[in-house]
Amino acid sequence: MAEKILSSRAEATKSEMVPQQRPLMPVHIFNAAIKGDTDYLVRCLGLLEEREVRVTVRTSQSTPQQTEEEHETVQFVLGSATRFGDTLLHLLITKSHNELALKVFTKDMSLLKARNRKQETPLHDAAKVGNEEVIRDLIRLSPSVVKDALGKTNENEDTAFHVAANHNHKGVVSELMKLDPQAAYEENKQGFSPLYIAIVEDHTSSVIAMLQVDATLACTQFSDGTFPVHVAARRGNAELVEHFLREYPDYAKLLDSCGRNLFHMAAEQGNSDVFTEVFALAKDDNPQISQMVESMINARDYEGNTPLHLAAMKGHESVMTAILDKLNYAQAAQVQNRKGETAFNLSFDQRWDNKEIDQNKIDAYIKKKGWYFTRHWFDDVMAPIANKLERTQIIGLGSVLITTVAFAAAFTVPGGYNADNGAPVLGKRFMFRAFILANTLAFIQAFQSLFLVILDALSDLRDLDLEYALYKFLSAASCMVIAFGLGSYVMLAPVSLPIAIIVLIVSLLVGSPTVFFILLMERDLYERVFTFSSAVIGLLVVTPIMPIILIFCLALL
């Protein structure tokens, strides 16, 4: 018997989801609805004037008498729809022709539940465009009809409440919330309620609008076991987390299905702003919040992990730093989860698995500091590096550019070629030979840099390849600047020797220190690129003035 009842209900629901087959809306009615032509629609449909609407709804009187033919025409127009299934009420509400929409609603209230091909009612359209005014007036005219329409879902099983929350129309959210607070708990086919959608989409104003009508929503547990503050912390919405804690101080003690509080959520996603805001709130607010923060920061989930464990596991340095600034380093390092792992163990493992690991640094740190967190661990060992893909793209693009320019300069030399024998006109000059050498060094080193970038992408030697490529790129850039100065000197010297000398000196001053200063920023570049046994040779190779020495010495030959 129960199975028959459930089956009949499912069939009824399914039949409701099929849009009613309606006749095609006449073109003149469609155009009038889009333009909001009040006079024409009132004349065609015998709609009530605005002052008559309230009287008709209150007394349930019918409209002025019509002939049977006129009545059939009106019913045909009201029952018609566009090719997309939109009724007259759909069109008027979407275009915000609110007075006309109210008159049509009064004429046929069932239109508010009419669905188009996307299963959307006019109430869905009002929520989508944020037509707060018409929703307020519809509720005023017939709250029961609007409440019934609010229960209708579209093809995604979203109610109008879901749509309003998704589009952050807080005025519509507030009106629908006042009409039916229970609608905020309804879930769509993804299992998301309007409150969950508003939090995930960072629509803080809509969330607060719901809570102002029904504060108990703050204690709603979603289908994934989380509470609203957990979702806000996971999204990194520090403003909303702070609002929850101010308005509902005990609320942060709620745990999800894994035994995690809001700090666990924020730590796992690397949302350091949440920690910063909550710590500031605890410092400036009442002692109750301060005690709550202390308990949450040290709390363990069902696997024994504190927020620091989760941040270390994911390698979120900013979160780890924020937590350790609040805690004692040594004390935090001793806390173990159920597997016997400390946060430092997890941080070490995460760093070890990273392709950018510097094993020597980690070994030296552990030998000197032991298995404990210190500021040195973050400032040196876990120092953030540029995104590898981004670095590779920059080095590769720069190398291609230098290679292209150097290749072109090799065949369009300063002064041109001798028409008789094809030899460079200025080929016997010292500065010309120096230019050719500088341009050749730029081309070769840029090509090597590009080759190393490709090798880095295809091989497992990912640490050394990119460092060599970076050095080769910087050296090629330096040679390119020097080549520019030498080429300019060759061209300008016969015309204005002082200007030629100035250009050359400026090029030499700019070209050499550029590499030197970047090498200073990469303090440990030598250690990462060269072994101890080849350190002396490495220093000579990467010395910034070596390209200049090489260029001018070879030019003497």
Number of helices, counting only DSSP H or I runs of 4 residues or more = 32
Mean pLDDT: 77
Strand content: under 5%
Tell me the overall shape: flat
Q: Main β-sheet: number of strands, strand sense, barrel status?
A: none
Helix content: 55-70%
Task: List the keywords.
single chain; 557 residues; mainly alpha; Serine Threonine Protein Phosphatase 5, Tetratricopeptide repeat; Butyryl-CoA Dehydrogenase, subunit A, domain 3; 32 helices; 0% strand; disordered N terminus; Ankyrin_rpt-contain_sf; ANK repeat
Write a brief caption for the model:
One of its GO terms (cellular component) is plasma membrane. The protein is mainly alpha-helical.
Question: Could you characterize what this model shows?
Answer:
- With 557 residues, the chain is mainly alpha-helical.
- Among the domains are: 18-131, Serine Threonine Protein Phosphatase 5, Tetratricopeptide repeat; 389-555, Butyryl-CoA Dehydrogenase, subunit A, domain 3, CATH 1.20.140.
- The chain contains 32 helices and no strands.
- It has helices at residues 2-17, 27-35, 38-45, 50-59, 68-78, 88-94, 98-107, 122-129, 132-141, 143-150, 160-166, 170-179, 194-200, 204-213, 228-235, 238-247, 262-269, 272-284, 287-298, 307-314, 317-326, 329-334, 343-353, 359-369, 375-381, 388-411, 430-458, 462-492, 497-521, 525-529, 535-542, 546-555.
- Helix 4 runs parallel beside helix 7 (98-107).
- The longest helix has 31 residues, at 462-492.
- The protein starts with a helix and ends with a helix.
- Mean pLDDT is 77; it is low at 1-18, 48-63, 520-537 and 539-544.
